[in-house]
Amino acid sequence: MSIALMFALRPLAKRVGLVDRPGGRKLHTGDIPVIGGIAMFCGIFSGLTILGLDLHSLLCLFIASLLLLAIGVIDDKYRLPVAARMTTQLAAVLIMIYGADLYMADMGDPFGAGLITTGPFMLIFTMLVTVTMINAYNMVDGIDGLAGLFAMIAMVSVATLAGISSLFGVAALVIAASIFGFLLFNFPVIWNRRMRSFMGDAGSTVLGFSIVWVMIGVSQGADAVISPVDCLWFAALPIFDCLTCFVRRVLKRQSPFKPGLDHFHHTLLRGGFHVRQNLGILTGLQIIYSVIGLSGFFAGIPDYVMFAAWSVLGLSQRTIIREIAKSHRLKRLSQAHPGKLADMKETMRT
Fold first, then answer.
1. Running along the chain, 350 residues long, what does each successive block of 10 average in pLDDT?
2. Is 5 part of any domain?
3. How many structural domains comprise the chain?
4. Biggest alpha carbon distance in the chain?
5. Cα(261)–Cα(255) distance, rounded to whole angstroms?
6. Does 18 reside within a domain?
7. pTM above 0.85, yes or no
């Protein structure tokens, strides 16, 4: 479904001006149709309708996602203020909580003191988690293929643990399949250059919300099959990137929602990596983190050990990315100016 719609929506997007034009922070050339969000939305829900999910819950998810899609499409075309986007995201969370009865009732056992329930803070905590995830996937949508690959890795990881016996596990596979259809038109390769399309804010927000919906479904309640801590590993890099940028911007007394050039992929680009190298490094790291999460689950490693490791990794992630970029920059400098680099090293020794 998503593949067919990517072809069908392309001429319509150009007629109505739903395109992304180059300039500023945008590195692409030419007007690119922003239709991935609509195509994936239709692909996801056409697949979910045949799974046998509770009709009421599915309808609530549909309404909440449609709300995010609509405001995302408008934002892609007209650039809405942060308040409008945040209000819509919070409305979607309320529909999920009070309509579909999906919420964060517990956090697992991240500190080794037993299961931590959210209790009276359920509403606030669920809102915080959901809005963070929505914006995390929105923020990493800075180079072709990155947000889509991150989302697909998360859903395949969840499906691996939940299995096809779980409706949420199968839902994760449906979402992953819809993302794959979009990536055929978004992945930075030569053969799709003339058909290149973006997901836009509409796509990244719907994906972020869908991922939260599935992760809450498999980690909460009597039918939970995995821990919320496991889910952190499957979305590690988007969360690390989002929280790092938020903290840095707040410390600089800037709006955390203001677009900037301080994301992990920007650091790697400044280090001299081209887009496909950038994509390979970040995707490779996220695959490693997902494998760690999967391995911890199958090995029966306690939540508090996995959470401690995840936290240490999160605190050091910016340094890791910066060192990768620095190493590559020095390597390029040594290849271009071997004598200059030797002089720099000699100066540092003296």
1. 88 86 59 92 92 85 96 91 94 96 96 95 97 96 93 97 85 96 90 88 96 96 90 98 94 84 92 93 97 97 98 97 92 73 49
2. no
3. 1
4. 72
5. 13
6. no
7. yes
